[in-house]
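Weekly sync, protein design subgroup
Attendees: M.S., D.O., the rotation student, P.L. (late)

Item 1: inverse folding check
M.S. brought a backbone from last month's batch and wanted to see whether the design step gives back something sensible before we order anything. D.O. pointed out we never logged the input encoding, so this time it goes straight into the notes. Structure tokens as presented (269 positions):
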């Protein structure tokens, strides 16, 4: 449990359940989820104390679709209202809790910061998952990931600053970090390595990011990653991994990004 994150157990508290003392919002999360981690990084950066509720995505309660039509984490409940989608949640946190400011004030600088994480979200993340799903070092898929990692290297090089957001980690750093935290896991599954000679700036950025207290506070147990993603890539995710008493997987499910079987993923008609 981190200092801002009041709960790390697995009671499925309801959206309207009272918040634990000192908490100002509730975050529906899943321990291994990189998207939920974006929101966690933002909340931690702003020292917002919140109630984290880990959802078993294999057995979502029906009401979960009322707070996020897509049935995905993260979802924030704040002042009785729900906000979903990781980038929207993170922007919401930035605006609802303005200190410290994580985005640059200058409009062009802010646009650049958006361009960085947008590229990673649009191109890097799908390339990451395609390689993970292959489960081995498929040449073409590894080259595609390298191309987008290379673009991130180029952005950082052009920016000429230690972080995408300047002299300290900011919004774009936290929006891209969760997948870089998972690159060693991708290496375990596929033998992919982010080459330090091809990507020196990014390699130094990763090393700097690991030292950031916010990253440390939100990091996910590396031992669980490989186990989780090994199951996930074959279509049998266990979203309760890391729980004190893991439940058995009850059914065969399909996988990520539209490959899940809609009858098990979506709201029951
Ligand atoms: N575009 C969404 C993606 C979120 C997402 O895919 N979350 C996954 C967990 S990592 C999820 O909740 N999946 C629902 C499911 O597999 O049933 C965002 O940015 O928040």
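Designed sequence read out in the meeting:
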């Amino acid at each position: 449990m981190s200092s801002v994150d009041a709960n790390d157990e697995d009671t499925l508290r309801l959206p309207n359940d009272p918040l634990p003392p000192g908490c100002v919002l509730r975050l529906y999360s899943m321990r291994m989820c990189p998207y939920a981690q974006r929101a966690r990084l933002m909340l931690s950066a702003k020292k917002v104390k919140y109630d984290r509720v880990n959802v078993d995505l294999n057995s979502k309660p029906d009401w979960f679709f009322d707070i996020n039509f897509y049935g995905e984490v993260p979802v924030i409940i704040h002042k009785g209202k729900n906000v979903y989608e990781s980038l929207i949640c993170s922007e919401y946190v930035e605006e609802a809790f303005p200190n410290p400011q994580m985005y640059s004030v200058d409009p062009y600088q802010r646009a650049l910061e958006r361009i960085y994480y947008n590229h990673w979200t649009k191109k890097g993340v799908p390339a990451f998952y395609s390689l993970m799903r292959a489960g081995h070092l498929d040449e073409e898929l590894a080259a595609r990931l390298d191309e987008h990692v290379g673009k991130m290297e180029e952005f950082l090089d052009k920016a000429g600053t230690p972080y995408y957001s300047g002299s300290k980690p900011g919004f774009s750093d936290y929006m891209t970090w969760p997948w870089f935290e998972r690159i060693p896991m991708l290496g375990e599954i596929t033998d992919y390595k982010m080459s330090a000679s091809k990507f020196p700036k990014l390699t130094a950025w990763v090393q700097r990011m690991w030292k950031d207290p916010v990253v440390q506070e939100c990091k996910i147990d590396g031992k669980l990653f490989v186990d989780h993603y090994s199951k996930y890539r074959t279509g049998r995710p266990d979203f309760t991994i890391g729980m004190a008493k893991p439940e058995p997987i009850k059914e065969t499910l399909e996988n990520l990004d539209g490959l899940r079987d809609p009858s098990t993923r979506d709201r029951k008609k």
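Discussion: The CA atoms of residues 39 and 90 lie 5 Å apart. The chain is about 50% helix and 5% strand.
Action: P.L. to compare against the previous round before Friday.
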